[in-house]
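can u do me a favor
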């Protein structure tokens, strides 16, 4: 019957659509100056949103993608739209260490926005945040904390944030949202 065929078609198409979805959302993080070789189908249309950030050299069966300057750009090389983030070598090293560290932490995920690492999700343990802070200090790199603290640790988190803001010479408001860890060489806390 017709119903059986449409079910088979659905089963066959489902993995493809899931694959296409994951490819289109995939972020690629590259250090400044790095070169990536990507195989391309000859008939594929190449698209780069920001040519200041990414440069492409056509090599026939493949392309060379050069991380030209800091920033981000969407690009499609025939394998779906991806977001590319180009970071300075020091931020890239911090990003690598941070992602490895965050993988061991339940509830937290790592992203990038405006060239800065961002923590999303739920902050379930205070020591996870302390680990992230220690890592940020060791690398002297800022990050943005967008993870929502678990109710169990919310008061502790608010207390720590207020103390940090006061030590940075800022007046903490009672309602604290996203908090950005300040660079040790500056007194700038731009998101709180």
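np, heres the sequence
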């Amino acid at each position: 019957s017709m119903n059986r065929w449409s079910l088979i078609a659905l089963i066959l198409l489902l993995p493809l659509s899931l694959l296409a979805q994951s490819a289109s959302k995939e972020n690629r993080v590259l250090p400044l100056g790095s070169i990536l070789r990507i195989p391309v189908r000859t008939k594929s249309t190449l698209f780069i949103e920001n040519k200041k950030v990414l440069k492409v050299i056509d090599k026939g069966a493949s392309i060379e993608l050069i991380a030209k300057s800091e920033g981000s750009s969407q690009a499609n090389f025939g394998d779906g739209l991806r977001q590319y983030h180009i970071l300075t070598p020091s931020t890239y090293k911090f990003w690598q260490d941070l992602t490895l560290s965050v993988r061991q932490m339940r509830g937290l995920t790592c992203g990038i926005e405006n060239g800065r690492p961002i923590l999303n999700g739920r902050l379930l343990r205070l020591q996870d945040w302390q680990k992230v802070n220690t890592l940020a200090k060791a690398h002297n790199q800022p990050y943005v904390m967008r993870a929502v603290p678990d109710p169990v640790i919310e008061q502790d988190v608010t207390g720590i944030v207020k103390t940090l803001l006061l030590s940075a010479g800022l007046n903490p408001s009672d309602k604290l949202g996203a908090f950005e860890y300040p660079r040790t060489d500056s007194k700038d806390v731009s998101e709180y």
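Confidence is low (pLDDT under 50) at residues 7-11, 14-24, 178-192. hope that helps!!
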